[in-house]
From TrEMBL, chain A:
The lineage of its organism: Archaea, Methanobacteriati, Methanobacteriota, Stenosarchaea group, Methanomicrobia. The keyword Metal-binding does not apply. It comes from Methanolobus vulcani. Coiled coil: none annotated. InterPro entries: SecD/SecF_arch_bac, SecD_SecF_C, SecF_arc. The keyword Transport applies. This is Protein-export membrane protein SecF. Its main location: membrane. Gene3D superfamilies: Multidrug efflux transporter AcrB transmembrane domain (1.20.1640.10). GO terms for biological process: intracellular protein transmembrane transport; protein targeting. Keywords: Cell membrane, Membrane, Protein transport, Translocation, Transmembrane, Transmembrane helix, Transport. HAMAP family: SecF_A. The chain crosses the membrane at residues 21-41, 132-151, 158-178, 184-204, 225-250, 256-277.
TrEMBL record, chain B:
GO terms for biological process: intracellular protein transmembrane transport; protein targeting. Belongs to the SecD/SecF family. SecD subfamily. SUPFAM superfamilies: Multidrug efflux transporter AcrB transmembrane domain. Involved in protein export. It is a multi-pass membrane protein. Keywords: Cell membrane, Membrane, Protein transport, Translocation, Transmembrane, Transmembrane helix, Transport. This is Protein-export membrane protein SecD. It comes from the Archaea. It is found in: Cell membrane. PANTHER family: PROTEIN TRANSLOCASE SUBUNIT SECD (PTHR30081:SF1), PROTEIN-EXPORT MEMBRANE PROTEIN SEC (PTHR30081). Gene3D superfamilies: 3.30.70.3220, Multidrug efflux transporter AcrB transmembrane domain. It comes from Methanolobus vulcani. The lineage of its organism: Archaea, Methanobacteriati, Methanobacteriota, Stenosarchaea group, Methanomicrobia. Pfam families: SecD_SecF_C, SecDF_P1_head. The chain crosses the membrane at residues 16-34, 405-421, 428-451, 457-479, 500-523, 529-548.
Length: 300, 565
């Protein structure tokens, strides 16, 4: 299947001119920006913030009780959400006093098995949020500097940075669409995406700029390698996603691992976006650049 | 014959030797072992989310600022807060190091009452129904006492290069502090640029003291392996392996039982007071003239009365040497010394509020004083702490997570192997590629075992991420070497492999740069994720992938030969 994908992508790239090629990824990029802007306008943050950044308590435990029963049982606490995942109940609470917190903790630990509790104070959440935003910005700028140092030419470097940026924006917009909240895990995934997404861009740019042969040949060659790279990574992530998310369906002795599940789903969509951005957006800019510089040189 | 030669050259290659040593070293560090009693065991440490346990993150509340105020108004306020007396300030005499404030009041004021303020020595005269008090103190003491009484907290003044810094050991905003100082004709001192010298948080010393108290407390409960870590200047993180969250909170918040007794006869002693009657504990000091290290502490009214009464009853005031004052923390003796002769004779007349426990003249005396300072607090923390975050994972759930993480890793590897096989269709490429990937995982785990790193879920995600980039890089090497499906001549091969490593190093550099902010900022579980990813990438590009480049060349060359035959 992946061989078919490479071939189809390759002929698509050959058949369309640079402007046509860039149109689709740019359109998706713009739509993603609009989605982020709408979320920002309605909630004050481009992505929905999870408990790690808003503050609150998440408790999950093994229980066969119904959602409504749990809601009633913990009505004395600021309960905001109850969900069922296989043989487990996941409850979320808003911020509460220390005494109430202690009472809730003791109660749950004493009465249930396989308990997991996570509590973040609102103040700490706000400071984590600031740090997370800073981490994403710093690491993006760091990546951009490295890219510029590697290629030392403006247009190809911008193309790489732009397609990495688009990957993150599309992944973030996608999180909004399917309702994944920003947590420490998803921030890690976005950072990882910065590292992953430039791998294939660097491969493409190096092959096109530094190898002899026509740009189109080099692009096709790079694509064969690059698409394999991304599909192997995707295969690993899809495996991680299914095991961490759905293994409880196979055996009741397993539970969802939210952290791994979130990291993998965000990376999966980021990498799918990366396939498009590398082989359409970055490729079109690079092809345009090489042909233009090439013609100018020939004229001179 | 030729095959043997190749085998030789491969084993003589420095990169291959390093690789083999690294793998062997890693296996030794991981130390996988099987016994029928314990089952399968390794040297790997697991984080709380895999092992079960709980964690607490505490924020130390406080503020550090330079302050100034009017001495007269300070005294007036301090007397007002403590004795509910509105006194008239008649004169203020400020010297270089001390300050003398004289005030009058129509009510009767005793020496005892003024001593209780804890600001200094006083002379009291009374004439014409008017009490006149001459109080000798210092500005630092007055400012500290004022804030202490006002906020019911401790304030520690320290001399810094450009003045005196006050550490206020409870949460107070800059505005609140400014308003409070304006009430006594003062303000937060501004620096040369006109910015107020105010910082939220506590000093590094206080943070370390808090950390030590927590560690000592955990040790005294027999929980020696529980690490207390400081995160930045204001946060403390405690990981309670194998302890549930409710118990952990109790341990961190509940102080120990501190008691003072006086020896009556032989081993017999009489109870004087418990730790809750100690009002405050100062910082360790050194007496120049006596050459003694000491810890200052103050007693509340009930405590001071009790100490006077029992000292007189037991005869300690008459014969201090045979009636030592003994301090216990959780039933263990932590201090024993006689009353000083001056204290003994003073106790005959009145209770003493401010005490100093002397501990000796040398370095040992200093160490003892530092320990006593902690004991006097009975494990109560020097600053107010706020619970910033906490977590809990049942041990059985951690077991499940561990099993699932391993399964996820194995299935991920199988999925990758499947994709690689579909693409190249050659076991000759598949086997070295997958083995390289596995060897990288072994080396990452070996590194983790060697430095005692705790593997948690985030680190495992990091390892899976590293496998992902690792395979990417192996694909780049393979495709470069295998240009147009064949092995190129040696010269071309060398230039190709150099180019491949150029791409790999560039890609690795971006990944490392992208992850490094997380290592530096180090918040939450993401630090582990970033570190494992970076370590994985480094191990990959420096140790494993060069060997893969070498091996894949040999394998393909051997393959080409067989085809030619």
């Amino acid at each position: 299947m992946e061989v078919g994908l490479t071939e189809r992508l390759d002929s698509f790239v050959r058949k369309h001119n640079d402007r046509q090629l860039a149109a689709l990824p740019l359109a998706v990029f713009v739509i993603s920006l609009i989605i982020l802007a709408i979320t920002f306008a309605s909630s004050g943050s481009p992505v929905k913030l999870g408990m790690d950044f808003e503050g609150g308590t998440m408790i999950s435990m093994a229980s066969q009780e119904s959602v409504t029963a749990m809601q009633q049982k913990y009505a004395d606490y600021p309960i905001t959400d109850v969900r069922q995942a296989g043989s487990r109940i996941i409850m979320q609470f808003g911020p509460m006093s220390d005494e109430l917190q202690q009472k809730l903790t003791s109660d749950v630990i004493d009465s249930y098995d396989n308990v997991e509790i996570n509590q973040i104070g609102p103040v700490y959440g706000a400071s984590l949020q600031k740090q997370a935003v800073r981490a994403v910005i710093v690491s993006f700028i760091g990546m951009a500097i490295v890219v510029f140092l590697i290629f030392k030419t403006f247009v190809p470097s911008v193309a790489v940075v732009l397609s990495a940026f688009s990957d993150i924006i599309i992944a973030a917009a996608f999180m909004n669409i399917i309702g994944i909240e920003l947590s420490l895990g998803t921030v890690a995934a976005l950072l990882m995406l910065i590292g992953y997404s430039v791998d294939s861009d660097i491969l493409l740019t190096t092959r096109v700029l530094k190898r002899r042969g026509t740009p189109q040949e080099n692009i096709s060659n790079a694509m064969h390698t690059g698409v394999t790279m991304t599909t192997t990574t995707l295969a690993a992530l899809v495996a991680m996603y299914f095991v961490s998310t759905f293994s409880y369906l196979i055996s009741p002795s397993f539970s969802q691992i939210t952290l791994l599940s979130n990291i993998s789903i965000v990376l999966i969509f980021g990498l799918v976006a990366d396939l498009m951005n590398t082989w359409m957006l970055n490729t079109s800019i690079l092809r345009w650049h090489v042909t233009n510089v090439g013609t100018r040189r020939r004229k001179a | 014959m030729r095959g043997d030669e190749k085998q030789q050259s491969l084993l003589k290659d420095i990169r291959v030797i390093v690789f083999i040593l690294a793998i062997l070293g890693s296996i030794i560090f991981i130390h996988p072992w099987y016994t029928s009693n314990d089952g399968f065991t390794t040297n790997l440490n697991y984080g709380l989310d895999l092992e079960g346990g709980s964690w607490l993150q505490l924020k130390l509340q406080g503020a550090v600022a330079q302050l100034d105020a009017d001495s007269g108004l300070l005294v007036k306020e301090i007397v007002n807060i403590n004795l509910a007396e509105d006194v008239t300030i008649t004169s203020v005499n400020e010297g270089a190091n001390d300050v003398t404030v004289t005030f009058t009041s129509p009510s009767l004021l005793t020496n005892n009452q003024i001593d209780q303020l804890g600001v200094g020595q006083s002379t009291i005269t009374r004439s014409n129904n008017l009490t006149q008090v001459e109080l000798h103190s210092s500005k630092e003491t007055l400012i500290s006492t004022y804030i202490e009484d006002k906020l019911k907290t401790e304030v520690v003044p320290t001399l810094v290069s450009d003045g005196v810094e006050y550490e206020i050991r409870t949460a107070i905003t800059q505005e609140e502090l400014q308003t409070m100082m304006e009430k006594v004709g003062g303000s937060i001192v501004t620096d040369i640029n006109g910015n107020p010298v105010y910082k939220e948080g506590v000093t590094t010393e206080t943070r370390d003291l808090t950390k030590k108290i927590l560690s000592d407390k955990l040790n005294s409960l027999g929980l020696k392996d529980i690490p207390v870590k400081t995160v930045g200047d204001d946060y403390i993180l405690i990981d309670f392996a194998g302890i549930d969250l409710a118990t952990a909170k109790n341990i961190a918040e509940k102080p120990g039982k501190f008691e003072i007794r006086i020896i009556t006869q032989g081993n017999e002693s009489k109870h004087v007071l418990y730790g809750d009657e100690i009002q405050s504990v100062g910082i360790v000091g050194y007496h120049e003239d006596a050459g003694q290290w000491y810890v200052p502490f103050t007693l509340d009214d009930a405590g001071a009365q009790a100490l006077q009464q029992i000292a007189i009853e037991t005869g300690a005031t008459k014969d201090p040497m045979s009636h030592n004052l003994v301090m216990y923390l959780d039933e263990n003796q932590v201090y024993s010394a006689p009353l000083s002769s001056s204290a003994a004779s003073k106790l005959e007349q009145a209770p003493i509020y401010s005490w100093q426990a002397s501990t000796g003249t040398d370095e040992d005396g200093k160490t003892t004083a530092e320990e006593l300072q902690i004991h006097l607090r009975a494990g109560a923390l020097p600053v107010n702490v706020e619970l910033m975050g906490s977590g809990h994972v049942d041990a059985s759930l951690g077991q499940q997570f561990k099993k699932e993480a391993v399964i996820a890793g194995l299935i991920a590897l199988l999925a990758v192997a499947f994709v690689v096989f579909r693409k190249y269709n050659k076991p000759a490429i598949l086997v070295p590629m997958v083995s390289t990937s596995i060897s990288e995982v072994i080396m990452i785990l070996g590194f983790a075992a060697a430095i005692g790193w705790q593997l948690d879920l985030a680190s495992i995600a990091g390892i899976i991420a590293a496998i992902g980039t690792g395979i990417d890089h192996l694909v780049i090497i393979t495709d470069e070497v295998l240009y147009e499906g064949k092995l190129p001549p040696r010269k071309v091969y060398l230039s190709r492999i150099t180019k491949a490593f150029g791409i790999i190093f560039a890609a690795a550099a971006t990944t490392i740069i992208a992850m490094s902010p997380l290592v530096v900022m180090g918040f939450g579980s993401l630090k582990g994720f970033a570190i494992t990813t970076i370590v994985g990438v480094l191990i990959g590009i420096l140790i494993a992938r060069p060997v893969y480049g070498k091996v894949i060349h040999e394998v393909l060359a051997a393959g080409a030969e067989t085809e030619a035959e």
